[in-house]
TrEMBL record:
Belongs to the isocitrate and isopropylmalate dehydrogenases family. LeuB type 2 subfamily. Homodimer. Residues 4-347 form the Isopropylmalate dehydrogenase-like domain. It catalyses: (2R,3S)-3-isopropylmalate + NAD(+) = 4-methyl-2-oxopentanoate + CO2 + NADH. Its cofactor is Mg(2+); Mn(2+). It comes from Zafaria cholistanensis. Keywords: Amino-acid biosynthesis, Branched-chain amino acid biosynthesis, Cytoplasm, Leucine biosynthesis, Magnesium, Manganese, Metal-binding, NAD, Oxidoreductase. Mg(2+) binds at residues 224, 248, 252. NAD(+) binds at residues 284-296. GO terms for biological process: L-leucine biosynthetic process. This is 3-isopropylmalate dehydrogenase. The keyword Translocase does not apply. The gene is leuB.
Length: 352
């Protein structure tokens, strides 16, 4: 029986539509010989959509999105300095709202070194790790407030929320992933020497779950030390588990050391599958190069591969990854002269 995979596609702003067009091209190629029917529904959301309609993300759109099997997302956001859009509006009212509403509690960001991709590090070694970043708690939940704003006595709080339930489910996910990887190692990154309350909840949770996974080793790094090791010896990492804020920062660094923003893919996962998971390149809408066919679609294409893995088509995901790897190895000969769509064509053609 042919399965239907029903996807919502949100191209968004700037280079979003350009890179998503290529991801869709490759998705179609990778699934053409599988026993599946791909159904794609496009949603217009983002800064341009807000300017045109006033909608950030309505409850109606949210309900429609919920019915899909997964979401492929480009990027949203206006150019910095665009005064027509209140700063942070789209990030908070659209992107964060989506991640919270869909309970995307695992933000998964793989980092890998590819042959042919220069690293800013002189001697990075072989990078192959994943960051499992908590996606629904921490300091990003909007738990704070301000008093006496604009006066010398202004008070501002931004309180990090960490629940036993929230920490446990993401730590468990990290151990499960580590158990399936060759090196089977989890590194908790936090700052439990000063953030003692949240830090000790994370530490105790890791210890409790580690006991269930005797085949997986685990260690711990403070966030500041983790940034040192990520630049001096990124090859030491296998699976990193960390909170929302530390994960946000560490994954940008991870992207930088392992080949740059054009390659960094991510998944916002609801592993209980009570709502669709969402897959997106880590980069933003890149207004500086938008509309010029200069964007590298690889991060969006690798995000599409993660999507296929999540919806139960791991073989198709592997075929995309292999095609990306081959294309990246061939890149020096093109020296950056290909358009976004030519890169997409080449990767699609390379999918076996
Ligand atoms: P950005 O990631 O859009 O761009 C940073 C730099 O990287 C730019 O020079 C850009 O040209 C380059 N770049 C990004 N993606 C690229 C690609 N695929 N190929 C080649 N070069 C690429 O970050 P920026 O400039 O800070 O933000 C621009 C807008 O994107 C803002 O409105 C921001 O809020 C939004 N944004 C949205 C995200 C999302 O939708 N998840 C994530 C990050 C930023
Ligand atoms: Mg970030």
């Amino acid at each position: 029986m042919t399965n239907t995979i029903d996807l919502a596609v949100i191209p968004g702003d700037g280079i979003g539509p350009e890179v998503i067009a290529e991801a869709v091209k490759v998705l179609k190629k990778a699934t053409q010989n599988e026993d599946v029917r791909l159904v794609l529904s496009e949603y217009r959301l983002g800064a341009e959509h807000w300017l045109a309609t006033g909608e950030t993300l309505s409850d109606g759109t949210l309900a429609e999105l919920r019915r899909h099997d997964a979401i492929l997302f480009g990027a949203v956001g206006a150019a910095p300095g665009d005064t027509r859009i209140p700063s942070g509006l789209i990030e908070r009212e659209m992107l964060l709202k989506l991640r919270f509403a869909m309970d995307h509690y695992v933000n998964l960001r793989p980092s890998k070194s590819y042959a042919g991709v220069p690293s800013p590090l002189a001697d990075p070694g072989t990078i192959d790790f994943i960051v499992v970043r908590e996606g629904t708690e921490g300091p990003y939940v909007g738990n704070g407030g301000a008093l006496r704003v604009g006066t010398p006595h202004e008070i501002a709080t931004e309180v990090s929320v960490n629940t036993a339930h929230g920490v446990e489910r993401v730590v468990r996910d990290a151990f499960r992933r580590a158990a399936d990887r060759p090196r089977r190692k989890v590194t908790l990154v936090h700052k439990h020497n000063v953030l003692v309350h949240a830090g000790h909840l994370w530490r105790r949770t890791v210890e409790a779950i580690a006991a269930e996974y005797p085949q997986v080793s685990h260690d711990y790094l403070h966030i500041d030390a983790a940034t040192i090791f990520m630049t001096t010896d990124p090859a030491r990492f296998d699976v990193i588990v960390t909170d929302n804020l530390f994960g946000d920062i560490l994954t940008d660094l991870a992207g930088a050391v392992s080949g740059g923003i054009g390659l960094a893919a991510s998944g916002n996962l609801n592993m209980d599958r009570t709502a669709p998971s969402m897959f997106e390149p880590v980069h933003g809408s890149a207004p500086d190069i938008a509309g010029q066919q200069k964007a590298d679609p690889t991060a969006a294409i690798l995000s599409a591969a993660m999507l296929l893995e999540h919806v139960g088509l791991p073989a198709a995901a592997r075929r995309i990854e292999a095609a990306v790897e081959a294309d990246i190895a061939a890149r020096p000969q093109f020296s950056g002269t290909r358009t976004t769509s030519q890169v997409g064509d080449a990767i699609a053609a390379g999918v076996s």
